[in-house]
Design brief:
Structural class: alpha+beta
Number of helices: 12
CATH class: Alpha Beta
Bound molecules: flavin mononucleotide
Distance between the termini: 27 Å
Number of strands: 17
Low-confidence stretches: none
Number of domains: 1
Largest sheet: 5 strands, antiparallel
Length: about 400
């Protein structure tokens, strides 16, 4: 139902996105989108770029008088840093000397530089890294904010929290409550456990001091989700796969689990599966545990969606690793672009956006209509069906 594309280079004029499939009649506030963009820029361990950029979205199409029209929504986020890159990233004309000066021929291990240079047959890895850079995720966060706005109309909320940085990790099977997750929003790493957060910050300080980077993990959560989103019907409709794909599409995310998937794989079935209960007052089934992360058989089961992403340490290191020059083929220490020690807190915000997009898509697949009113009618009918089940 929902489709979106982004375009834009890290140091180009702007990032843009087109979101297609959003129903008409949805009230959108740019302040809310901007607030989400601001959340992406924060977090302990970030570097200089975040001080330059202060993202603001401009809606270009698909919205009239603050309400969606049902036509494709187009948005733009200008890159403030563009003013420093106008020559090196000029859209037209022959390459000026500035472009030569900004050429990258020393690919960084772990980044997209070498694979991309070989793929597109370019000896200037800048042609790759400009797009591979996680700057692109600002556009995703803006799209995610629109999806969150849709979901909020149905009482569905999305949150995230940092669960580990390097060796400072919460116990694998610990599930923080929704209240603790949302309460940590203003903390330096958006970690629900203040003591653990202090350990995480020490890990970041130690890595930074040694000119190194450090990875970690974050959990995303969605509550208020009705049962039956996603499908058991086909492999590509199973929601667990869609959530994992969305998380793995975030630059530097290298692992994903639904619920306590990794711990579950080491345990016995009797201590893994969430027993089923029925509340006659609410006329609803419920669970006392949620090790499945709210998804069974590729469908939501009515519990909170919980999924975790595992993030590798960033690959641009002030301490260089061995690499080989793309032109001379001589061994070099890899080129150093401006870098963060960790972007784990930002990665969680991007994870929220990706989860919002997946859940909004699944929601519209089940209840979709051309206007918000039509979607609401469809949803109300389903809730009635559930109550009389
Ligand atoms: C929010 C965020 C910020 C990032 N910042 C940096 C950075 O400063 N330096 C860096 O080398 N990689 C950074 N990355 C990771 C790279 O974009 C990523 O490693 C690269 O595109 C290669 O893709 P892959 O790691 O998914 O294979 C960041 C990732 C995220 C999610």
């Amino acid at each position: 139902m929902l489709r979106f594309l982004t375009a834009g280079e890290s140091h180009g004029p702007a990032l843009v996105a087109i979101l297609d499939g959003m129903p008409g009649g949805l009230r959108l506030r740019t302040e809310f989108i901007n607030r989400e963009l601001k959340r992406r820029m924060g977090g302990y361990g970030r570097g200089g770029r975040m001080k330059i950029e202060s993202d603001e979205v401009k809606l270009l199409a698909g919205v009239r008088f603050g309400t969606t029209l049902g036509s494709p929504i187009a948005l733009i986020i200008e890159n403030r840093d563009w003013s420093n890159w106008k020559a090196a990233m000029a859209v037209e004309g022959p390459p000026p000397p500035a472009a030569v000066a900004r050429r990258v021929t020393r690919p960084r291990p772990g980044h997209a530089d070498l694979a991309g240079a070989l793929k597109v047959n370019s000896h200037d890895a800048r042609n790759i890294l400009e797009r591979a850079s996680a700057r692109e995720t600002a556009a995703r966060v803006a799209v995610g904010a629109i999806c969150r706005t849709l979901l909020a109309n149905f009482g569905i909320e999305i949150a995230s929290h940092t669960t580990s940085v390097g060796g400072a990790a919460a116990p694998e099977d610990r599930q923080e409550s929704w209240e603790r997750i949302t309460a940590c929003e203003a903390s330096p790493l958006r970690c629900a456990d203040p003591k653990l957060e202090r350990r995480m910050m020490r890990e970041i300080d130690a890595a930074s001091k040694q000119g190194d980077s450090v990875g970690g993990s974050f959990q995303v959560a969605a509550r208020g989700v009705p049962p039956g989103l996603g499908s058991h019907r086909q492999w590509d409709l199973r929601l667990a796969g869609l959530v994992a794909r969305a998380l793995l599409s975030i630059p530097s995310v290298k692992g994903a689990e639904v619920g306590s998937g990794f711990a579950n794989a080491r345990a016995r079935g009797s201590s893994v599966h969430d027993e089923i209960f029925y509340d006659p007052k609410r006329r609803a089934f419920y669970r006392k545990t949620n090790r499945a992360g709210g998804i069974e058989g590729g469908m939501t089961n009515g519990e909170e969606i919980r999924a975790r992403a595992f993030v590798k340490p960033l690959s641009t290191l002030p301490t260089s690793l061995q690499s080989v020059d793309l032109v001379s083929k001589e061994a070099f220490e890899a080129a150093v672009e401006r870098t963060d020690t960790t972007a784990i807190a930002a990665a969680g915000v991007i994870g929220e956006a990706m989860l919002a997009i997946v859940v909004a898509d699944a929601f519209l697949s089940k209840f979709g209509g051309d206007s918000l009113g039509e979607v609401k009618r469809n949803y109300r009918g389903y809730l009635k069906q559930l109550r009389s089940f």
